[in-house]
UniProtKB/TrEMBL annotation:
Stretch list, region Disordered: 1-30
The species this protein was found in: Sanguibacter antarcticus
Name this polypeptide is given: Lysophospholipase L1-like esterase
Superkingdom classification of source: Bacteria
Record-annotated SGNH hydrolase-type esterase domain positions: 35-214
Gene3D superfamilies (UniProt xref): SGNH hydrolase
Cross-referenced InterPro entries: GDSL_Rv0518-like, SGNH_hydro, SGNH_hydro_sf
Amino acid sequence: MSDVKSTDGQADLDESTQEQATTLPPPAPWSRYIAIGDSFTEGLWDLQPEDETNCRGWADMLAMNLSHRRIAAGLDPLLYANLAIRGRLLRPIIAEQLPAALEMKPDLVSLIGGGNDILRPNVDVDVLSRSLEAAVVRIRESGADVLLSTGVDASDSPLMGLTRGRVGIFNANVWSIAQRHGAFVMDQWGMRALRDWRMWAPDRIHLTTDGHRRISQGALIALGQEPDDAQWDDPLAPLPPVPRLEWARENALWLREHVAPWAARRIRKESSGDARTAKYPELVPFG
């Protein structure tokens, strides 16, 4: 009797696997993905209800998606590591995270950084771009593919909009680097949904869970893969205008709770990630 149940259960499992395989797009060619970078890739503000001390983020979502497609096709789960740490400038990302990533012999690396550098008014964007290109060359020479990203168009933010020119130059360099070395580029600058404040956390620098979800779909597109959601970049339904007094109060709250602590850390030459380590420092089966 137990043998019959086991056979029936296996048949049900096989049917379920086949059904999942027909509903998911075909698997991507990568089996070992490592994400390196700063808070954007660490997944800041995408807190999980079961563990609010940890965050998920677009890179974890991308890895989960790629892994599910592999599993549905009968392949082993994707191996994934996330070495990103909040507050990191591009140079430490390249000096500390990149060697550790290459030692694990990935076939896909997402290298997204430079945003913290660009927030500093004295940054030399061309030097930043040359550092990025040298890192891309190292990754490509290892045989791995590279996913880069443009910065976001912050023209709707009175304060962050001051960096728009620097971001624009950096973006142009990112596209040129990608063309020279065969890298993939996720185009955050062109994402319409990111122009909506509802995609952004209270600090106005990091994404909400929905923002991270949309970025993960944009990453699939950048990698030449089919998205799960055809409407992934559709703008949200517009909200009525915020009264001027309410907007002023929100700005004052933002300056007090987010900008002031950030500026204080800059003065003390501290980083929000000084005491942190990578959340997934080793390749593990994901999904």
